[in-house]
Amino acid sequence: MKQTVILGLSGGVDSAVAAALLRENYDVRCVWLDIGLGGGEDAAALAHRMGLPFQAVDIRERLEHFVCADFQREYLAGRTPLPCARCNPLVKFPALLEVAEAQGAQYVATGHYARVSPGPGGRVFLRKGMPPNDQSYMLSRLTQGYLHRILFPLGGYEKAQVRAMAEELELPVAHKPDSMEICFIPDGDYAAWLDRRGEAPPPGDFIDREGHILGRHKGIHHYTIGQGRGLGVSGPHRYFVSAIDPAANTVTLSDGSDLMAQRVLCARPNWIAVDTLEEPMAVTVRLRHSRTETPGTIRPLDAARVEVLLEEPARAPTPGQLAVFYQEDVVMGSAWIEGSDRTWN
Fold it and tell me: Is residue 87 among the annotated active site residues?
């Protein structure tokens, strides 16, 4: 008798191929997570085509509480939030596991490009997926309790291989474009989304590092540290956002020479490959959702804070984003960026 797995089926090519791979060895049951923006009919039709049970689960209230409201608060505080990294441990996987518990399923699965593998002492490691499409960064807030019950069937494949499998299986989503935007802001205009929710910050002054006014900004929620486009300010050089001050409602611009940092302060670590960080550890570090990794050393300041010392300066470590720590392809853990030696002494 096959074990049961609850698969998060989005209606895209990744989760569809994940379903096809899993059904060879598991009793696959599909769950579409409803955020109130439609799309369930496509997912249901895909499950029906594959002969798999399907149900929709409404996660709107949970998404609002844990992700959307936080997204708004972070921008109002002059930070740059990372909603997917919050959604995975607080909304998506808890919702799938609730279905698993109700149906007596041992596992849940998604179409993420990452891997899990056994580690020492009963620990489960989170590992990178294939380099072109690795998604371990966004999964780095998952805990051991989740990782013991998660399957990532696409972890050993590249996206081109997944689309080829979808073609071979004659799945209608084989060439469906990837969704690159935040799921609850499908048009990608997060500033307009914040404006519609109300309480958006008013326009204010662009200033230089000496406090001279350079122009007017549209509201601090339109900007992030390191941004160089869409500023509408001309001068003797190209300008970049180097600081955001919610209290003064100002955005500081510079020539970008002050954006590099070699020391980063992080908070609220989530350790995956170890129980805790007790002494300095050599790692490579991702400071944003990209393939760029910088060698460095992490050391504990206390139970809630970690100092990251990079071998080479990194550009614009941004409060609200994640620092994810790796040893080769293993995610050691992650922590939220709070500041750097640009802003912290």
Answer: yes
